[in-house]
Amino acid sequence: MASPSLSSSFFFFILFSLLSALSHAGSFGINYGRVADDLPPPSKVVELLKSQGLTRVKLYDTDADVLTALANSGISVVVALPNELLSTAAADQSFTDAWVQANITNYYPATQIEAIAVGNEVFVDPKNTTKFLVPAMKNVYASLVKQNISSDIKISSPIALSALQSSYPSSAGSFKSELIEPVIKPMLDFLRGTASYLMVNAYPFFAYSANADEISLDYALFKENPGVVDSGNGLTYHSLFDAEIDAVFAAMSALQYDDVKMVVTETGWPSKGDVDEVGASEENAASYNGNLVKRVLTGSGTPLRPNDPLNVFLFALFNENEKPGPKSERNYGLFYPNEQKVYNIPLTLRELKDGNETAPSLNVEKSQVPVTGGGRVETMSFHGQTWCVANGHAGEEKLKAALDYACGEGGADCRPIQEGSTCYDPNTLEAHASYAFNSYYQLKSRGPGTCNFGGTAHVTTQPPRYGNCVFPTGY
Ligand SMILES: *[C@@H]1O[C@H](CO)[C@@H](O)[C@H](O)[C@H]1NC(C)=O
Ligand SMILES: *[C@@H]1O[C@H](CO)[C@@H](O)[C@H](O)[C@H]1NC(C)=O
Ligand SMILES: *[C@@H]1O[C@H](CO)[C@@H](O)[C@H](O)[C@H]1NC(C)=O
Predict the structure, then answer these.
(1) Residue 112: in which H helix or E strand, if any?
(2) Is the bond preceding 360 in cis, omega lying within 30 degrees of 0?
(3) Is the CB of 87 under 6 A from ligand 3?
(4) Which pLDDT score, from 0 to 100, does residue 27 have?
(5) 123 CB burial (10 A radius; 0-12, 13-18, 19+)
(6) Residue 197 lies in a domain
(7) How far is the CA of 23 from the centre of ligand 2 (A)?
(8) For 88, 174, 208, 327, which has the most beta carbons within 10 A of its beta carbon?
(9) Is the domain of 194 the same as that of 341?
């Protein structure tokens, strides 16, 4: 592409400066996940981030090498206390004192830590650590207070969209009723009291992929489209992302937490998927992520909160070859481990102004049926009696990884297979995996590709028989 003339470049600079000044533009960062055995060393990754103009990064731990490499880099960092430590952190203030000392104070302020994510998608943690979440957040906060850094470093915890009971239309967004009193309200009270914000992971890809026949691809990819009117409040949505975020805002509003802010701690689109993961492609990933950057850096807030800047962390920096689950899980990265780009998109205002963007597509796809849904909680009408079960001959290791994925990130309801619950017996891997796979499959409205689990699962038209366990269908 020819480089723009000086005057047009200057014009665009002024235009974008004006746009960003006038329109409550947000900030853009990236998740640096490391579930891989082939990534460059942290020092090289920091150079890569700098070369791309990326100034905010989110980690899933407090790795010493990574935090050291980020020191004095000009890059601000969100770190994490992993789910495995929640129960200890909740039980013992002296543990969080030591954790903060060793994992935060040791690096801060040379390493510009801006927030601590206490746990990740805790409500869908297969180990069910939900009851430890708010006590752990409070203990970490108290430890920060002791170090006099509690106003500089915020504490929050990323929630998955599956925390929502309803997400369509956005204005009807509400949290799952069983979470509201035990954890949502206490957490939002804590966030309000400490001037922190809610962290939300939102993937329009999941909603699109499970309902590709009903959701317009342009709407999912932030391309030009006629928009979808929310019948509840009359607002028009031009992207599934905005609709999902506003469903969370509506859920907060319903509990009277309109003053609590939000940061989107994960969103993204995979460049590859299994054959049945509809929509996973390089072209779509480049569109979603490229348009997201533009949306965040030059747009305003969402229709429901237009004056709240959108602060977003993209998932993810690298393709991570050791992530379990469907193929898409290993293909969210902007970069291959060798630091080559998977596809080329602008990541900064400067690149946007230099015109490194493709024109919005004008062809409006398919019908504009306004199914927005909450990604992992999408529900549709009942289509027929089918169930999803594990393949008895699938290897134990693959089956275990798939089970963990389904109960964890997948958002399957795995309560009934916990010890003491109705579907614990028979206590076999195949029975538990079948229960979890089926729950996931039903939650995904039996959409294409939702009963695969790396080839360890298949659809059946017969009600599964494992002990006295009743496998749900059609919710
Ligand atoms: C520092 O963090 C790591 C990982 O979160 C944890 O295993 C370790 O116990 C922490 N250090 C202390 C002293 O708590
Ligand atoms: C605590 O930190 C603030 C700045 O955040 C500083 O002004 C104050 O002096 C500190 N207090 C102590 C006791 O170190
Ligand atoms: C998690 O534990 C709480 C009690 O601590 C219980 O009410 C809830 O049903 C459990 N959830 C799951 C998914 O097991």
Answers:
(1) strand 112-118
(2) no
(3) no
(4) 94
(5) buried
(6) yes
(7) 34
(8) 208
(9) yes
- Using a 10 angstrom Cβ sphere, with 0-12 exposed, 13-18 middle and 19 or more buried, the burial of residue 14 is exposed
> How many domains, the chain?
2
Q: Return the CA Rg of the chain.
A: 22
- Its domain, for residue 36, covers 32-353
Is 320 a known active-site residue? no
* Measured torsion, CA atoms of residues 378, 244, 214, 439, in degrees rounded to the nearest 10: -10
Is residue 2 located within the same domain as residue 75? no
Q: Write out pLDDT tens, residues 155-182.
A: 999 999 999 999 999 999 999 999 999 9
> Is residue 296, in this structure, part of any structural domain at all?
yes
Question: Rounded to an integer, what is the distance from CA 199 to the centroid of its chain?
Answer: 9
Best residue for ligand 1 mutational test, from 67, 103, 113 (most atoms within 8 Å of Cβ): 103
Q: Are residues 14 and 155 in the same domain?
A: no
Which residue of the set 244, 266, 320, 409 is catalytic? 266
pLDDT digits (tens, 9 = 90+) for 29-71: 999 999 999 999 999 999 999 999 999 999 999 999 999 999 9
When the pLDDT of each residue in the chain is averaged and rounded to a whole number, the result is 88
Residue 379 included in any domain: no
Could you tell me if 434 and 418 lie in one domain? yes
Q: For position 19, what pLDDT does the model report?
A: 52
Report how far Cα 248 is from the mean position of its chain's Cα atoms: 13
Does residue 280 lie in a domain region? yes
Please write the tens of the pLDDT for every residue from 397-425.
Answer: 888 989 999 998 888 989 889 888 888 98
Q: What is the pTM of this model?
A: 0.76
- Give nearest CA residue, ligand 3 atom 3: 131
Q: What percent of the chain has pLDDT over 70?
A: 88
Q: How far apart are CA 314 and CA 415, in angstroms?
A: 31
How large is the average pLDDT for residues 305-311? 94
